[in-house]
Specification:
homodimer; 3 strands; Arc Repressor Mutant, subunit A; alpha+beta; DNA-binding; 5 helices
Chain lengths: 107, 107
DNA sequence: TTATGATATTAGAAAATTCTAATATACTTA
DNA sequence: TAAGTATATTAGAATTTTCTAATATCATAA
C-alpha cells in the first residue's frame, strides 16, 4: 500500500463527496440525459452544474458524448451505486444504533 | 431521496476522502491500536493525526476507548473495507482501460 | 452568415479544509 | 502532589473547494 494508491482513492472519494454530485449520479441512475434535463432537476446555476459534472467526469465516474447541440451524460462506473448503497447501509445502521441508545437512556 | 440524505452521504464520503484518514483506517484494519502506535506509523504531527481521528470518529467510522493513559482506536464500521475494496476495483478497471487505449493508439 | 440555444470555461470572492504550533486535559508514577 | 506521558483542543495561517457572474465555444436554424 503506497502513498499514490491512497491519494487516488481519496481523489475518487472526494469527487463523490458533495451533495450536488450525489444528486447528479442519482438523476443519471436509470438513463443517459442531456445537461439541460439535469439542470431542470437541480435548481442551480448552469455553470455550477457544469463544474460538478466535470469533477465526476475527471474521475471517470460519468462520461459524456455530443448529440447535436446537446451533451449527453451517463454513469460510466456503475460501481458507484454499489458503493452508495453500502454507505446507505452504514447510515441506517448508525441511525438504528442511535435510536437504541435513546431507548436505553430511558427517554 | 431528500436533501438531508444526500448531505449525510456526502459527509460520510468526505470523512473518507483524505489520504491520511485512509491510511489510518488501513492501519486499524486488523486490530485495535493506541494513538501512539498509529503515530509511529504515520510520520505526521500528533495534533494533525488527532484531528484526523476525530473526523473519522464523528462519522462513526472508528471508535475509541480509554485504556489507562492510552486511547485505543478501532474501526467500528467495517463496511468501509467493503467500500474501499469496491473503489479499488474501479481504479484498477480504469487503469486497465487506459492501458487498452494506449495499445489501440499504437504506442 | 448571423442569431440562438446548449454547454464549457474562466476569474475571483466566499467558504471549508488542512496543517502547524501552542496549550490544555487526564492518567500514571515517583 | 509534582512530574511525566498520552492525547485532545484551539488559534490562526495556508490551501483547496465551491459558488456566482461573465464570457467563450460550438452546433443549429433562420
Amino acid at each position: 500500500m503506497n502513498d499514490l494508491f491512497f491519494k487516488l482513492t481519496a481523489s475518487y472519494l472526494k469527487a463523490l463527496s458533495h451533495p450536488t454530485r450525489l444528486k447528479i449520479i442519482n438523476i443519471l441512475k436509470e438513463k443517459e440525459l442531456c445537461v439541460c434535463v439535469i439542470l431542470e432537476k437541480l435548481d442551480l446555476e448552469q455553470s455550477n452544474v457544469s463544474q460538478h459534472l466535470r469533477v465526476l467526469k475527471e474521475q471517470n465516474i460519468v462520461e459524456s458524448r455530443r448529440d447535436g447541440s446537446k451533451i449527453m451524460y451517463k454513469v460510466k462506473d456503475r460501481n458507484v451505486f454499489f458503493i452508495l448503497n453500502k454507505i446507505n447501509d452504514s447510515l441506517l445502521k448508525q441511525l438504528s444504533e442511535t435510536q437504541d441508545q435513546l431507548k436505553k437512556g430511558g427517554l
